[in-house]
Amino acid sequence: MTTEPPAIETPTLEESAPDHVESARRGRLGVPAMLVVAVAAILGAGATLFRHAAAQTNHTTLAASPKGVTAVSAKAAQFRETRRYVGTLSPWLEARVGPQLVSAYVSDVLVRPGMSVKKDQILATLDCRNSSAANLVVARQAQALEAEQRALASETSRFQTLLDGGFVSPNEVEQRQAKTVAQGAQLQALQAQSVGKRLEVDDCVLRSPFAGEVAVRSVDPGAFVRPGTTIVSVVDRHQLRLVADAPETDFDSVKVGTVVRIALLSNGLHLDGTISRRAPAADESTRTVRFEVDLDPKGQDLPAGTTAEITLDVGQPMPATVIPSVAAKARGNKASVFVVDGNVAKKLELPLLGEREGQLFVSPELAAETLVVTEGRAHLSNGDHVLVKDSSESTPKAP
Question: Are 103 and 224 in a shared domain?
Fold first, then answer.
C-alpha cells in the first residue's frame, strides 16, 4: 500500500510580512493628516495677523488730523532801542620808556611788572661810554675855543685903541673883528654840539615820567636797543578811560553826557558812567567816531587794556509785545508767526521792533495772551488744525 507524503502549507504574502511593514503603512496614512493640520494652523495665524493689522490702520487722512504743536502766550512789554559797543579800558597816562637818541647795550633794568614807581625814578640804564667820551671831547674843544676867543677879543679891543693914534690900519682892525666874530660862532656851534652830547648821555639813564605802575618789561640786560625801542611800559591808573568807537550813523547817540551801562569782561563788574568826550570827526578808514567814558576806580583794582561792553538806550520807550525768538521767522523788519485761534493755526506778518536776550519785540498788533506756536511751526501751513500741548514752562517773561 502506497503512503502519500504530507502536504506542505505555503504561507500567504500578508502572513509572511514582518511587523515593521505594517508600521510603515500606518505612517504613510498619517502624513496627509499632519499636512492638513499644519496648513490649517498657518491659515489661522495669517487670519489673526490680518485682523490685528486691519484694526490698527488709520482711515483718517493726515491732512484732516490735527498737528501737535507747542505754544506760549505773548506778553505785553515796553521796548526801547539800545546800542552796544565794545571798548577798551585804557589808563589815564601811559608811557613806553626807551632810548630816543642813542643805540647801546642795556646795562640794567631795575623794575618788574606790577611794581609801583615814582616820578623820575630810574627804570633802566644803558652802556653809553662812547657817548660820554664824545661829550667830554666836545666839552674840552669848547673850553679851548672859548679861551682863544676871549684872547682874540682882548687883542681886537687893543687894536682899536691903536687905530686912534694911527699905529694900525683900519683894515687890520676889521680883520681882527671878523676873526673874533667867526670864533664866537664856532664856539656857539661847539656849545650846541655839547648840549646834544649831554642829551645823549642823559638818554642813557631812563626815568619814569610820572608816578604809576610798571605794566610791561620788554627787554633784559645785555640786549642791544635802538632809538624807539620800548624797554619798560608805565601806566597811571588813578583814573581810567573807557575808549570805544561808534558807527558814524550813531554820532547823535553818543553825545557828551549820555548815560551808559558798562560790563567789564575781566572781572564781571557792572558800572554806570557818562560819556565824557566825543571826537568831532570820524576816522577816514573805518568811518567810526571815537568817544570816551572817564571812570574813577575808587580803590578797585581795574586792569587796564581789558575789554568792556558799553550799552546805552536810544529814543523813547514804546509799547510792544514780546515773544520767544523761536516763535518767529525774522527777516529784516518783519516777523512771521503762527498764532492759535481755537484749534486752527493762522499765519501773521508783524512789524519787528527789536531783539534782546532771546526774545523778539513785535508790534502790539499781536495782542497780549495770544497763543504763539513755538515748536512744530516748520510743518504748519495757514489754516492747519492743531493740537496744543502744555507750554507753561516756556512762557516769555515781560522785561
Answer: yes
* CB neighbours of residue 7 within 10 Å: 6
Whether 89 is covered by a domain: the verdict is: no
Contact 180, 160 (CB under 8 A): no
Q: Are residues 19 and 36 in the same domain?
A: yes
Beta strands per DSSP E along the chain: 67-73, 75-97, 104-109, 116-117, 122-127, 205-207, 212-217, 224-225, 232-247, 259-264, 270-278, 288-295, 307-324, 328-331, 334-341, 344-356, 359-362, 371-375, 386-389
Element (H, E) at 230: none
Grid cell 507524503 in the structure block, residue: 5
Q: Of 280, 361, 364, which Cα lies nearest the Cα of 328?
A: 361
Report helix, strand or coil for 132.
helix
Give pTM, 2 decimals: 0.59
Whether the CB-CB separation of 71 and 396 falls below 8 Å is answered with no
DSSP class per residue in 162-180: HHHHTSS-HHHHHHHHHHH
Ranked by mean pLDDT, the top range of 40-54, 272-286, 381-395 is 272-286
Highest mean pLDDT among 13-22, 33-42, 230-239, 370-379: 230-239
For 134, the grid coordinates are: 664824545
Whether the CB-CB separation of 389 and 72 falls below 8 Å is answered with: no
pLDDT in tens, 320-342: 999 998 888 888 889 999 998 88
Domain identity same for 153 and 249: no
Closest C-alpha among 79, 151, 38 to residue 353: 79
Phi and psi at residue 15, in whole multiples of 5°? -75, -30
Domain housing 74: 69-78+319-394
